[in-house]
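Deliverable D4.2, example record:
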Amino acid sequence: MKTSQYKLITRDYLIKFFKSDFVLSQNYIPLKTDLNKIIFSLNKSRHSSKNIIMWEQYGLINDNRKQGKGWKKYSFSECVWIDLIKKLKCYGFHIKTLHPIKTMLSEVEDHAKISQFPLLDFYIKLILCDHKQVFLLADDSANAILITQEHLDSVEQLMVFEYEDMLKLNLSKLVSELVSELFFELDL
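Output generated by the structure prediction step:
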């Protein structure tokens, strides 16, 4: 997948709204706090303990328990990431291709030091607050990008655009299903 076309379309948007507004400003601290409260247990019928332990060992998710004791709890953002891992694994993505995706979601440091996955939190905000349609585009070479439907449409309208083999996951649907399952509400 040639993510450069997608990155060029989304770059200015991310610089303006993600890096300068979402990451650096104080405006979204209540939202980031809500998304990152470690209060959710995973549904055992959807996530096997074996997979969770294995993903922890591979460094894909963190064990948030103090001294490794007590019940495992996760934030809403972590639950979204865990569901993304599960989906990507269902499509045959290897652990080695998941690490760069995790890095992409967490590589920009949140100025308020609240978000573990600042980029994911930003797109969750677009889904829940701004009602945007968001997708994760990924390929088996560990190239990935989060993109809104409007930016995806812009890329596809380019005269030089060529389709590449890639997986397109509907992040909006995944987040909406998780909101319903966890009875998650934002206190904005």
